[in-house]
Amino acid sequence: MKSNTFNYSLLAVGIAAVMGISGGANAATPNTTGGVSAGAAAINNVATANYSVAGIAQPNVSSNIVTVNVSETANFSLTSTIDDGSIGDDIAINQTATPGGTTTFTHNLTNTGNVTDTYTINTTGNDSALVTATPDYALGTASVKFTIVQADGTPLTTAQINALNGQAQTGTVANGGTIKLQPGTRANLSYEAATPDARNGNDKGVGTLTATSTFFTANLPANATLVNENQTIVRLPTFKIVKTATSTVDLTVANPQINYSIVVTNATTDYSAAATDIVIRDVLPTGLSLPNGAASDVTVTGGAGTATISTINGRRAIDVAVANLAVGASRTITFTVNVDKTQYTTANSSATNNVEVYDKFVGPIGVLPAVPVLGTDYNILDSTNNNIDVTRVPAAADLANGAGIDTAGVTNFTRRAVVVSNPTTREIAPASGTANQAIHSTLITNSGQDAEGTNTNPLTFTIADGGNNAAVRPVTGPVSVTYTPPGGGAPVTITLQPTVAGGNTYTLNSSTLPTAQFPNGIAPGGTLAINYNVSSGNVTTPTTVADAAAVGSTETTIVTLTPAGTNPPAVTSVTDTTNVRGLSLVKAQSLDATCSGTVASSTFVQTAIDATPDQCVIYRIQATNTSSAALGFNLTGVTISDLLSNFSAGADLVANSPATSATTSSTAGTASTTSTAVLGTNYTIVPQGVGTLTFKIKIKNAR
Question: Is the pLDDT of residue 6 over 50?
Fold first, then answer.
């Protein structure tokens, strides 16, 4: 319908003249003619008398003639009795219509002339000259009910009733039928204009009611018809549904729950109507349940609302009946549900909870069945699932930024379980250099159902020195990480830079883990090994003994994993251990009293022994590789040396006595004697292996 601007109808005005007809025009309110007059035959009246005188008849006597000139004046009005706020009484605009229903229009047809007149009544689906309109639908034709009363609305007098002469006082005339009215009477007219079932909110209809005077038709045809225009607008509720839910729920807690809020508003539009006897339905997603399974779990605020609980296809359903929701009014429904954790075990699990509002054009919704039937149980269905909407309002109303935009309640479930584990123990030489550093491999395991090391769920880890051994420490800078996908996928190794150059903190997210190798970060079931180095000594060859770590000393390194993002799990850490291993040297001696060169191994001691001149002592020097068989390293180029000056003041080296030996898998050195020392050179000693140098001395005789 175009904008409701009004053009006053141009109504003919007749000017009474004896034996003549003339016309004029003016704007009239109410819709009325100006009147039309016609000269009728004059009434000439002559009186006569007859008489006798003495019994003799006398001539008849006639009086003078008196003349009455008759003037017949017709006039009538047609007014709309609906107070619609428009200017003038010849239109009725924006009258409420309902799809499949009817709208009643009422008008008064009044005979304001001095002659009885007959009027032909018509209803049409046309525009009139009153309003320039482009209707969505035509109102069509309909029969018209009438009741005849006096012009001021009071009942007819007895004389007026007797003068009806067969014209019914009340009744119905078919479209195109006639009604006869005496002067000073009116017919209260009403008719129902139908709105087709398929019409939607804000659709507009237009039609007319016309009355045509028989008297005017005979005397001034151009002005014989008065036209009133009737307009309808389909008014329907426009529901705005806003459902909110706890955005994320941590499934690692003992009793996960979701808090829901539903706000249903009857939005204000140009075509709004109050919603009566509606039902708001929420069928909970699978795995969600009310704590008590009762209506007491549901709270309705903002006005009256009655909740009932049922089960539909194994899911709990909440129906809230609302008797009246005025335009602009809202109802708020709140409740809490328990979450069955076993129903949401896959990655990125979520629950979308939709809400539906059911309404009928006429009558209450009543108790909804499990599967409501359109046209039987409801006429309007507005849902946060727009795919099932039957809103019957303009399409733009339910789109983004529309009055009836709807939002569902979406909850994302997290079950994050990511920890750092696998503490390792490594062994290192007192001075590792760059080539012989210990490599620890600490493991990050994702045993949850959400991807880790993403922008949504970033991780950071630190590699911190335990601070117990200044000569042993983790190497800062880039580290190698090896990702093993779930299901036995091929491992992927990349170099990870520290968050701050030269630092010991590292970040795992969608930027630091290349998407090509890590399309889903650390996927559920995947592991990421952190491979970092620990050095000892001055890294390069120590220049002094103080630069090296002491054999047998130890150091710890703490690797701490800190999850961030949504519902992060607890911080975890492991302690890795680096033990300093190398060469231990033990010197023992045994008394060879006869200098025969044969002594039992058990007789070697590290304590003092007593000897006399000309007796012999056998020295045994053992170099042991203290690194373990599982973690250790070979000692190569080992030289064992014992200075002659250590014993030359009281004993002499027995010639050809130096000898070397080594345990299995190790290589014995070469025994030799210089002017200053007894040597065993070029041993290779495997982890836990022993290289031995023995030689014999003879106690000098002081005489």
Answer: no
Predicted local confidence at residue 573, as pLDDT = 98
| DSSP symbol at 133 | -
pLDDT value of residue 38 = 52
| 137-138 and 204-213 beta bridge pairing | parallel
pLDDT for 36 equals: 59
Per-residue pLDDT at 448: 94
Q: What is the pLDDT of residues 356-370, one digit of tens each?
A: 999 999 999 999 999
CA distance 134 to 355: 37
User: In this predicted structure, what is the pLDDT of residue 17?
Assistant: 26
How far apart, in whole angstroms, are the C-alpha atoms of residue 266 and residue 22?
A: 58
E-assigned strand segments in 594-669:
616-625, 635-643, 651-653, 659-662
DSSP 296-319: GG-EEESS--EEEEEEETTEEEEE
Nearest partner of 201 among 142, 106, 133, 266, judged by Cα: 266
Longest dimension (CA), the chain: 231
Cβ neighbours of 304 (radius 10 Å): 11
Structural contact between residues 527 and 448, judged by C-beta atoms closer than 8 angstroms:
no
Site of tokens 């005849």? 148
> What is the pTM for the complete model shown?
0.75
Measured distance CA(562)–CA(257) in Å, rounded: 26
Element (H, E) at 126: none
Q: Which residues of 551-609 form beta strands (DSSP E)?
A: 554-563, 572-580, 583-592
CA distance 98 to 201: 8
Whether the CB-CB separation of 227 and 31 falls below 8 Å is answered with yes
β-pairing, 572-580 vs 651-653, is unpaired
Query: In the sheet that 144-150 helps form, which strands lie side by side, from edge to edge?
Result: 31-32, 76-80, 102-111, 185-194, 144-150, 170-173
| pLDDT value for 68 | 52
What is the C-alpha end-to-end distance of the chain, expressed in Å? Answer: 143
Burial of 402 (0-12, 13-18, 19+ CB in 10 A): middle
Phi and psi of 613, rounded to 5°?
Answer: -55, 145
Class of residue 541 by CB neighbours under 10 A (exposed 0-12, middle 13-18, buried 19+)? exposed
Per-residue pLDDT at 598 exceeds 50: yes
Confidence tier at 487 by pLDDT (50, 70, 90): confident
97: phi then psi, degrees, rounded to nearest 5: -130, 150
Report how far residue 372's alpha carbon sits from residue 642's, in angstroms, rounded to the nearest whole number: 103
* Tokens encoding 381: 């269905």
Of 434, 429, 427, the C-alpha closest to 638 is: 429
Question: Which CATH number among 3.30.1780.10, 3.30.300.30, 3.30.499.10, 2.60.40.740 corresponds to the domain 239-414?
Answer: 2.60.40.740
Task: CATH 2.60.40.740 in the chain: give the residue spans.
Answer: 239-414, 418-580
Q: 418-580: which CATH architecture?
A: Sandwich (2.60)
Would you give the distance in Å from CA 560 to the centre of its chain?
35
The neighbouring-strand residues paired with 675 are none
Q: Does domain 10-38+73-231 have CATH number 3.30.70?
A: no
CA distance 232 to 278: 24
Q: What residues form DSSP beta bridges with 697?
A: 617, 653
d(CA 228, CA 213): 15
What are 552's two structure tokens?
């047998």
- Containing H/E element for 160? helix 158-162
Say if domain 583-699 classifies as CATH 1.10.10: no
Please state, in angstroms and rounded to a whole number, the distance separating the CA atoms of residues 110 and 182: 9
Amino acid at 566: T
Q: Rounded to whole angstroms, how far apart are CA atoms 241 and 408?
A: 8
